[in-house]
Structure formats: structure tokens, C-alpha cells
Amino acid sequence: MIKKIFILLIASAALFSCGKKTRTKKEARQIALGVDTPDYTAFNIETMHTEDAVPKNKLKAKVQMRYKNGNERYPEGIDIVTYDQESSEESSHLIADSAIYTADSTMYTVYSNVVLEDYKKGQKLETDTLHFNKETGDIFTDDNVKITTEYEIVTGKGMRANQNDPENYEILQVTGSVYVE
Questions:
Q1: Distances in whole angstroms, Cα of residue 110 to Cα of each of 73, 74, 98, 116
Q2: DSSP 8-state secondary structure symbol assigned to residue 57
Q3: Helix, strand, coil proportions of the chain in percent (round to 5)?
Q4: Which residues, 6+ apart, have CB-to-CB distance to 41 below 8 Å?
Q5: 0.85 cut: is pTM over it?
Q6: Inter-CA distances, 85 with 70, 122, 132, Å
Q7: Domain 37-179 has CATH 2.60.450.10
Q8: End-to-end CA distance of the chain, in Å?
Q9: E-strand spans in 53-137?
Q10: Could you please report the per-residue DSSP string of 77-96?
């Protein structure tokens, strides 16, 4: 047992003595845990965003990790409900297995089993990855998409839309369309 500890100490000393400078505790921790360790982690969160006491959206997540640079990670899923500004009723619902918010580009990216239901239009979008630019309102993906309405199912690859003009969206490469009776 003492031999093992001695060998471990010698190996550690040899590893950390290589190079011109010694590492601080903080640097060693960053190496051990990775550079992008969260500033804080919150569990089972639910936040409501309002403007003038009118609900805009509600976000739920099992885990939220926030970093010093303003980035956020939601590794165990995200659930976002958006409300109609006039009626305060739910207008859309987004769920995904994970998500990332990148502060410098104000971009949300949701991954894996992404489902976005638009209750006003009666549409459901399914894809693997969906990007949303908070500044411009652009919503897009280059992955396969499936849009289901009451009368039609359209599949394709890639989609472009804008939150401010939800009636106009474009599927870049339509691969199929089925009319439902």
C-alpha cells in the first residue's frame, strides 16, 4: 500500500514538474474538471418571463448550468411554453432532450427529439436540432424536419422561419408531402 502511494506521489510530481511554470490550484482544477465548468448549477427550475405583468414564456428544466461568459446549458431537457400577448393563453410549446444558450450570439440551440407545437396555427414541427436567434427572431435547422398540420404532413431537410412572421416559413428541400383526410 505504501509503495503504491509513493509511486503515485512520484508520478504526480514528475507530471506537474514538467514545464516552465507550476500550476495554481485553480488551473489544476480546470484541467481536472475541464475549462468550461459552470459558475453555478440549478436543479428543477421553472422561470416565468413577463413584460408589464403579461406572461411571455415559461421555461422548465431538470438541470440548468450557467457559465461566467453568460452561456447556459440544459443537459437533461428543456420545456418552454410561449404565451399569446393578447389573450395570455399558451401559443406554442417546445420540448427537447438538451439545449445550449450562447450569450455572445444570443443563440439558443435545442437538440435531440425536438418538438415544437404551434397551437395558433395547429402545426407541429419535429427535428433533431433547432436554432433560435433571440435578437433577430430567426428559427432554423439544417436537419431533417417533419411538419404536421390537420390536413398535411410535410417532410424535408432544412428549414428557415422567423418568430416575427410565423406564417412564412421555408423547408429547404422538401422530401415528401402527404395529405390527410
A1: 10, 9, 6, 11
A2: E
A3: 15, 55, 30
A4: 63, 64, 65, 66
A5: no
A6: 27, 18, 19
A7: yes
A8: 75
A9: 54-66, 72-74, 78-83, 90-96, 98-102, 107-118, 123-133
A10: -EEEEEE-TTT-SEEEEEEE
CA-CA distance, 45 to 62, in Å (whole number)? 6
- Helix or strand or coil: residue 17? helix
- Chain Cα centroid distance, residue 62: 13
Write out the three cell numbers for 143: 436537419
The pLDDT tens digits of the residues spanning 101-138 come to 888 888 889 999 999 998 888 889 999 999 988 888 88
Q: What angle do CA 25, 31, 34 make, to 5 degrees?
A: 120
Residue type, 157: K
Residue 168 dihedral angles phi and psi, to the nearest 5°: -105, 110
**Tens-place pLDDT, residues 16-28:** 444 444 445 555 4
Which sequence spans correspond to the domains of the chain?
A: 1-35, 37-179
Under 8 Å between Cβ of 73 and 38: yes
Q: Name the helix (H) or strand (E) containing 158.
A: strand 152-162
Q: Which of 176, 139, 138 is nearest to 157 (CA)?
A: 176
The residue type found at 92 is: S
